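This part of the workshop introduces the protein records we will be handling. A record pairs a protein's sequence with a compact description of its fold. As an example, a complete record with its sequence and its structure tokens follows.

_____
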Amino acid sequence: MSSQDGQVTFKKLNHSASNALIPWQSAKPALVPKDILEPAQIVDEYAITLRTVDKRSLVNAFKRGDYAMGAGHLWRRSIARLRERIGGLGMRFLGEMLNREDITEQSSPDAVLTDHDTIFLAEALGFVDFTGAMRLRHGFEVVSHFDSERATEEMSLVEAGTVVRVCVQYVFGPEESATAIGFSHFRERLSSEGLKNR
């Protein structure tokens, strides 16, 4: 853009397709049909990246009505896996995002990232979309409530189904996300190439 005699003119920029800016997009969740509510069925049919032994144990727990135990176990496995994926971007980088100087490159994600931190980072970095982050926060609240001594009732089938659905949709349903790989390459390019004047 340039200005001559009060007139604004725009220069046509010649960018190749390989240099075009592409908006950052969140990973897409796995599709679990809305009408499937049974936690056992969701795990058995849609948790494609969950180990077979874990699937079998969870399906048996849900069929016995051990909803809090099954949902809690799947929740902890899901958050651990999400932490591991996010940690692959570099712990110092994550510390900068959280404004925490105590996190170094040698820090273990399991030791320094809370569930809340993990969900925040997963959304900010595109591992989950806005709705996924909201559902993960809700799942965290449900599991935390029923793990506490203050819970006055047992977890219901519907509550377990909600937790299981979000864990499968955003963690154990999709294949490994290319988000971490793409973001890591982007960070490497920024640090190695720098910004060039055009």
In short: The chain has nine helices and two strands. Confidence is low (pLDDT under 50) at residues 1-18.
